[in-house]
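Cross-posted from the bioinformatics board.
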Amino acid sequence: MVGRIMLREMAKGQSGTIAGVKVAGELGRRIREMGMVPGTIIKIQGRAPLNDPVALRVMGGTLTLRNNEADYIEVEVE
Amino acid sequence: MAESFKIALAGNPNAGKTTLFNRLTGARQHVGNYPGVTVEKKEGIYNSATGARIKVVDLPGTYSLTAYSVEEVVARDFLIHEKPRVVINITDAANLERHLYLTCQFLELGVPVVIALNMIDVARDRGIAIEVAKLAELLNVPVVAISARSGEGVDELLQVAEQVAQTNKDWEPVYIAYGEDIDGAILEMEEQIETNSFLTDTYSSRWLALKYLENDRQVIDKGRSFAGKHGRGEVADCLEGKVEEVGKHLLATMETYPEAIVADHRYGYIKSILRQGVITHTYDADRLYTSDRIDRVVTNRIFGPIIMLAVLLGLYHFTFTYSELPVGWLEFLFGWLTTFFERVLPDGHLKSLLVSGIIGGVGGVMGFVPIIMFMFFGIAILEDSGYLARVAFMMDRIFRIFGLHGSSVMAYIISGGIAGGCAVPGVMATRTLRSPRERMATLLTAPFMNCGAKLPVLALMIGTFFSNNQAQVMFMLTLLAWVVALLVAKFLRLTVLKGEPTPFVMELPPYRLPTFRGLAIHTWEKTWQYIRKAATVILGASILIWATMTFPGLPDSQKAIFEKQRQEILATYAELAEQPLAEGRSVPVSPELTRQLAAIEGARAEQALLHSLAGRLGRSLESVSWLAGFDWRTNIALVGGFAAKEIVLSTLGTAYSLGEVDPEDGGSLSKTLAADPSWNRAKAFSLILFIMFYSPCFVTVVCIIKEAGSWKWGAFSMAFNTVFAMLLSTAVYQLCRVFGVGG
C-alpha cells in the first residue's frame, strides 16, 4: 500500500513519514512539540490492550496518543 | 569570595532534571508552591568549587514554553520576571532532536543557556555518538555531556554555568526563520509594538509578535489588559487582526495554521543543525532496546492487564499492610498517652480537651504519616521506573469514557477501590496526573471508595441486617463505589469541570532502575509536606469537632440528677455490704454494681451528647433526615463521622447510651440495633449508602483543599457529596417503603 493514510489505519510495526497534522489549538501543539511534524518518520510500536491508545516510535523515543487524536495525523506510507 | 546568584534547571519531563537537582542540592532543598497554582516550586543551594553560593531553582518539566499548561506558564514567567543569570537546559542525549525543541525556545527568548547532554552513558550504549563541540559551535551556546546519575561531567557543567553567570551578559535572542508569510507578519507587528512601546518593558518585540502568531492565550490576554490600562486598544486590535489575516491566508493557501508553521520551522532548524555531523549512529537506529523488549510483555494484550493488576495490588498491600507496624507503634504511643492523662488529670473540660481533642487529633494526624510515606515510596518506584506511564497507557480507554485519565486508576485503588484503602493518600496520589480537569475529577470522586474507616461501620450494618450473605453484600458495595465514583466523575466533567479532554499525547519513558537516593528524597519531601501543611489545619479542626460534641455541657441541675442516682446506687450497695460509706473505704466491687454504674454513665453521656452542639444539630436535621429514615441518633453519629468515619460507631453507641463502643467489636451495638423496632433493612441500607457517599472526613477535605489549591473545592466536596448521598438514600429508602421491601 502506497500513499497517504491516517495514522489510525496503520498496522502494528508499519512505518511511515508524517505528511500533515490537521489540527490547531492545544492538541495540535502537543502533537507538534513532541516531534510529530511533517517529515518525521514514525513507526507503530503497539497498541494498548483495548486497541487504544497507540504507541509510536518517534525520533528514538516512544510516544502514545489516543486514536481520536491520531485521526488528525496524515502519514505517507510505502 | 565569589558572589551569590540564581540559576534555573529546565528541560523536558523525563530528561533527568530531578536527578541532577538532587545531586546538586542534596537534602538542602526547599519545596513550596508557586503563588496561586499547585505546581511545586523547588529551590536549593549549591556551593560551587569557587565558593559561590548558587541558588538553584528546579523549574517544572515542560516540552515547550507556550502557555497551555500551568507548568509552562510558571516556567516562562519565572524566566521572564526573575531573570536567572543562566538556565541549565537538561536534555536527553539519546532523544536530542525532540529535546532541542524546548532549547530553541530558550534561545528565542534570549536567556543565557548552557546545555547539559544528560544520560550520555545511555546514548553511548545505544551507539549514539554526539559531537559536543560541533553542537556548541552551531548553537552558539556551551554544551556539556553529563550523566546526572553517575555524576560524570556534572562538575564541569557547573563550572561552565558559573562562568556564563559571571559574565552576566545581556539577553541575546536568536532569530529562527519562519518562512515568508510568518516572517513578514512578524516584521510588521514588531514595528507596531516598537513604535507604541507595547509591553516592551517585559517582552522583546520579536518574541511578543511570535507569541501572538502562536496564538498564545496568556500573551494575548496581557496585551488586552495592557491596552485597556494605557488606552492602546487599537494596537491590540491591530496585532490580533494581523494574526487573523495570516491565519486565514495560510488556511486558504496551504491548509495549515501559523502555529504549525512555527513548530515545523523550529524542527527544521534543529534538523539542519543535527545533520551537520553532530549525531552519528553506530548501530541500527531502529533496533529494539531492552525497554521495548520489556514493553512487549508488560503492555501485552493478555499479560499486560494481569501484570498491572498484580502491581497495583502489590502497591496497595505495600501501602496498607507494611505500614501497619509503624501505625501500630503510633497507636500504642497515643493510647499510652491517653491512659496516662486520663489517670493523672481530674475529670473536666481540660482533660476532655487534652485526651479527646488534642491527643486524639495529633494521633489522627500522625496515624496517616506511615501510610503516606509507604504510598509515596511505592508510587515513586512506579513513577521513576517508568511503569506508571504504562498503567495510564493501558487503562486510558476505560477511564476516558468517564472524562478521566488512565492514571486515575491508582488514586481510586488507594482510596479504597480495593475495600480498605484511605482517601487521604488517595487524594494525594492524584499528583501524578498532569491533566488538570481529569485530576480534579479524580480527586473529587476518589473519596467515594470504601476506605478502611468506613469498613467497620459497613461491616456492623451488614452483620446486623444482612447476615445471610455478608461477603456478597460487601462485594456489591465495593462495585457500587466504583460505579458511583465513575458516574459522578462523568457528571462533574459535564458540568463544573466541563472541557475538552486534555490531550493524551505523552511519552513512554524507557524503563530505568530507580535510585534509592531519589526515592528517599521524593518520599521524605511529600511526607514532610503533609505534616507541615495539613497537620496544623487538621489539629485545629479536630479540636473544633471535639468542641461541638462537648459544648455546651449539661446544665448543673441535670448533672446533679445523675450524680444523685450514682450516689443512691453506691449507697444501696454499701448497705448490702453492711459497711458505712463515709469511712474512706471503697464499696466492694460487684459485677452488678459496675453494670448499674455504667448504665448511669451511659445515660449521662447520651444526655450530654444530645445537649451538645452536635446533638442539637442532629435533632434539627431530623426534619430532613427522616426522609432517608434517619432519626436524631443516627444524625449525631453522622455528624461525628465527619471527624473520621469509624467514629460513627462510637457516637451511635453513646447515642444509644451504651457507653464506649470499640469500633473493632460492635457486638452490643449490633444487638441493640437488631432489637430496636425503628431499625429495619431499608433503614440500614439507606444508612450504608449515606455513609459511603456523604462528605469525606475532614482530613480528606483538608487534603482536597491543599491539592486543589482552593478551599472552595473542599467546601464543594462536602456539600455536593452530602446532598448527593442524601438524595440517593432518600430515593432508596422511600422506594423500599413504597414496595414494602426490607420493612
